[in-house]
Amino acid sequence: MSELKTLISQLENIALNPGKSVAKSVKDTGKEPIGCFPIYTPEEIVYAAGYLPVGMWGGKTEIKQADKYLQSFCCSIMRSNIEYGMKGTYDGLKAVIIPTFCDTLKCVCENWKTAVPQVPVITVVYPQNRLLDAGYQYLVTEFNRIKDEIEKLKGEKISSKNMEKSFSIYENYREAMRSFVKVVKDYPITINTRTRHLIIKAAYFMDKKDYTDIIIQIVNELKNSSAENFNGIRVVATGLIGEPVELLNIFVENNIAVVADDFAQESRQFRVQARNKGTAIEKMAYRIVDQKGCTFLYEEVKTKGQMLIDMVKESKAQAVVVVMMKFCDPEEFDYPIIKEEIEKADIPMLYIETDMQMDSYEQIRTRVQSFAEMLG
Ligand code: SF4
């Protein structure tokens, strides 16, 4: 158990101290870092080129300069990323890669060039109609273009062997994470909602291979102990990101455990297993084609609501918690659809709006307490 505690606290510390953690990973691996904006940045190509992919999901900082480029109604993740960039926090990055899933991201791709000119930007454009063969073919072409851009940055070609090796390291990571989220739902006391999030988040600041080794050890240690007798409330959580961490503390205080998630920063990253055919780039494209229930990937008929209902049943949860990042318009557009479906299924739901720069949590605390009392 003490080994388990050490591993957990190691990953928690990494997630809580991204700057220091990335500096340490750079020192340990000798790799230069490349910043990967949300949501599906093709990290495997970055890794194959010998760079260290680093997640850029915002953070808490006072917004002073970013207002020049992003209005106050833009999401706080992008506002903080631009602010950090302008403050020089990201000067050590070799480049950043920015996908264009929403209007804010589209603007940020261009804003970045002027606001943070010292860090080059590579943009990725995902197809709307990814379920058509033409959409898939386009995505393969786009990933190959990103590969060319990274090769130019590095000054050398990425071999097919390195692409395959990198893809396999990422598949091992994703398999380990699927196993992690499946196992930890039976240990909601040791791996509470806050700890679960921090463990998953640590992956964004480490070499994926090193991170995967630790996750496998954590899963094995947990499997060696009996499932925990938890008398609190079990929920499925959805949204872009389960932050700020203070929000998760409130869940822990109220004995609420996330037993399954659909967060873009968490399970959406690893829930799709790759097809077993094609080159690494083709498999990467198929992973996007095969992703279901993601707000950012077009579906003629939205499957997210039913997916959440199924997750509630599978994980024996009592409710759904929607953590809405203000003002993430794609997630907001989906909300009325999933709300109606979840209500029809008679599943209790809590909707919380968050912001990376939040200072006061008292309103949320009251709402979470009431929710816990209602279900307790
Ligand atoms: S609006 Fe949503 S999808 Fe777009 S950058 Fe912000 S958080 Fe990401």
Helix content: 40-55%
Uncertain runs are none
Spatial extent as radius of gyration: 20 Å
CATH first level of the largest domain: which class?
Alpha Beta
Q: Strands of the biggest beta sheet: in what spatial order? A: 2-1-3-4
Main sheet: strands, sense, barrel: 4 strands, parallel
Average pLDDT over all residues: 96
In CATH, the architecture of the largest domain is: 3-Layer(aba) Sandwich
- The structure class reads alpha/beta
At the fold tier of CATH, the topology name of the largest domain is Rossmann fold
Into which percentage range does the β-strand content fall? 5-15%
Structural domain count: 3
Number of helices: 15
Fold topology:
Blueprint (H helix, E strand, L loop, with lengths): L1 H15 L1 H12 L3 E4 L6 H6 L3 E4 L20 H12 L7 E5 L3 H13 L5 E4 L8 H22 L5 H25 L8 H9 L6 H16 L9 E7 L5 H9 L2 E8 L3 H4 L9 H11 L13 H11 L4 E7 L3 H16 L4 E6 L7 H14 L1
Parallel strand pairs: 1-2, 1-3, 3-4, 5-6, 5-7, 7-8
Bound molecules: iron/sulfur cluster.
The site of iron/sulfur cluster (SF4) has 13 residues, from helix 4, helix 5 and helix 14.
